[in-house]
Amino acid sequence: MVAAQTHSFPSSSTSTPFPSPRTPASLTPFANPYTHDCSSLINFTKSSISFRSFKKHVLIQCSGPNSPSELGNPFSEANSQTPCKLFSFFQEIGLGDKETESLVAKVPALRSTSLVSLRDRIHSLQSVGIQGIALYRLVTKRASVLTCEEVDPLMSFVRDELEGKIEAVQLERLLSATEPRFLVGFDQKVRLLLHLGIPGEKIAHVLNNVNLTKVICLRSVEYIEGTFTFLDPFSGIDLILRRPVILNYDLETQLIPRVTFLKELSGGDEDATGTVLRKLPAILSYSLEHVKGHVHLLRSFAGLSDEQIFKILLVFPNVISASRERKLLPRINFLKECGLDSSDVFKFLIKAPLFLGLSFEDNLVHKLGFLVKIGYRYRTKEFAVAVGAVTRTSCQNMQRVIELFMSYGLSSGDIHAMSKKHPQILQYNHTSLEEKMEYLIGEMGREVGELLAFPAFLGYRLDDRIKHRYEEKKKTLGEGMSLNKLLSVSTERFSSRKTKKRSCVNYL
C-alpha cells in the first residue's frame, strides 16, 4: 500500500493567491488597507466624517491580547496570528469581518496556526477541486478543515492514489458533514472496496455516487465486509456498480429485510431473486412497506398468488414503481371490466406488463381510441387482448401501421379481422411491414387480401424466412404455394423436405 503523503505548495506571491508575508516595512498582500498603520489611524482626528465607523473597524481588527502593540513582530510565524493577519487572510477567501470573527470564536486554533500552514491547507483543498464559492462554503461551515491534522492525508490520498477523480462536490460534502476524527482510515476502507471486488477503474464511479460520510467514514471495516458478503449471492458487485447508492442503505434495517421479502415471495429461489435485483437494482430503494403494499394489492384485488406475482416481477420488476392509486388499481379494474378473471389477468400481465406502467394521457388513451375506430368494442376480452398487443409500440407507429394498411386498400373491418387473428400486427414496425407487403405483391405476385387469411405472414423476417423459402419452393411448386404452409412449417421440417426433394432428383 502506498502511504498517504502531504505535498507542500509554493508560497511565493507570483504562483499563489496566498503569498507568504513580506517584511514589516512593506504592506503585506494579506493586510487589510485599514490596518497598514493601526496606531496612526487610531490617532486620526475626530473631525473626520467617518471617524466613528472607521475607529470601530480598526479596533475590532487590531485590539486584544494579540494586537501588534503587544507582540514584538506581528509577522513572526513563531507568534499566534494577529487578528489583522487573520482578517486579511480570510478576505482572500471571501469572508467578511463578522464571518471571520465568528470562525475564530468557534475554532480558536485558527489563532495559533501559522499563515504558512493555513495557506498550504488552502492549496491542498484547491488541488482536489475545492475552489471559489465551494471553498468559501466549506470554510464557513467547518473552519476546522484549515487546522485539523486529519485533512492532509485524505487530500493526498484523493489526489495521488485516486488521481483526483473524486468530484469536488463530493469532497466538499464529505469535509463539511464529517467530524475530522472520522476521516481517519478513509484510505484503508477505499482499498478494502477494491479488495472486495470493485474494479480499480470503477472505484471513482462508486465513490462519486454514495454518501461518503455514511458509507466510508462512519462504518467499520467489518460492517462493509458484511454488506458485500450479504449481497454476494445476488451478484453484489454488479448491483453496486450499476447502482452505487445501494451502499447507502443500512444492512440490518433496509437491505436484509427488502431482499429477504423478495426471496420469500419467490419461494426461496435465490437465483430468481438475483435476476429481479439485476434487472432493476433500484427496487432496493423502495421501502419494505412500499413493496408489501404493491404485493398486497395484487393478491387481494387482482387475485394473484405469490408465485404469479413473482413471475410478473421477473418479467417487469418496474411494477413496483407504478403508483397503486393512479395505475395499478384502475388498470386492473379495467381488465376486470373487460371480463378477465384472475387467471386471465395473470396471463395478460405476463404478456403485456408495460400496461401497468404506461402513461394514460400520453399513451394509452390514444391507442384505445385507435382500437375503437377500427371496430373493437370497449370492455370486451378481445379489446383487452388488443390493448395488450399494442403496449409495446408507440402511438405514432400504431397510427402509421393503420394508415399503411388502408393505403393498400384494406378497410377498418379488414384490419380488425386481421388483428383478431394476429394481434401483433398492430405493434410491428410500419417500415418493415411496408417492405413485406411490397415483396408480397411485387415479387411474389400475390393479392393483399391473402393477408386476411394469414396475417401472421407479416411477422416473419423478410430476408431470413420469406425470401429464402419462397425462392427455394418457387423452383418446384411455382408461385401458387400456400403462404401458411410456406412459412409456418418448422426450419427442421422445411430443411428435411428440401433434402428429400434433392435426393429424388438425383435418383432420377
List the helices and strands and how they pair.
Elements: H1 38-42, H2 51-62, H3 83-93, H4 97-106, H5 109-112, H6 115-127, H7 132-141, H8 151-161, H9 168-177, H10 186-195, H11 203-207, H12 212-217, H13 221-231, H14 236-242, H15 251-265, H16 270-279, H17 288-300, H18 306-315, H19 324-337, H20 342-351, H21 360-373, H22 381-389, H23 395-407, H24 412-421, H25 430-443, H26 450-453, H27 462-477, H28 483-488, H29 491-507
Helix pairs in contact: 6-8, 7-9
Protein model, in words:
The chain has 508 residues and is an all-alpha fold. Among the domains are: 1-182, no CATH class; 460-508, no CATH class. Helix content is 59%, strand content 0%. It contains 29 helices and no strands. It has helices at 38-42, 51-62, 83-93, 97-106, 109-112, 115-127, 132-141, 151-161, 168-177, 186-195, 203-207, 212-217, 221-231, 236-242, 251-265, 270-279, 288-300, 306-315, 324-337, 342-351, 360-373, 381-389, 395-407, 412-421, 430-443, 450-453, 462-477, 483-488, 491-507. α6 (115-127) runs parallel beside α8 and α7 (132-141) packs parallel to α9 (168-177). The chain is elongated, with a radius of gyration of 37 Å. Residues 1-79 and 503-508 have low confidence and may be disordered. This is mTERF domain-containing protein. One of its GO terms (molecular function) is nucleic acid binding. Belongs to the mTERF family. Residues 8-17 have a biased composition (Low complexity). It comes from Cephalotus follicularis.
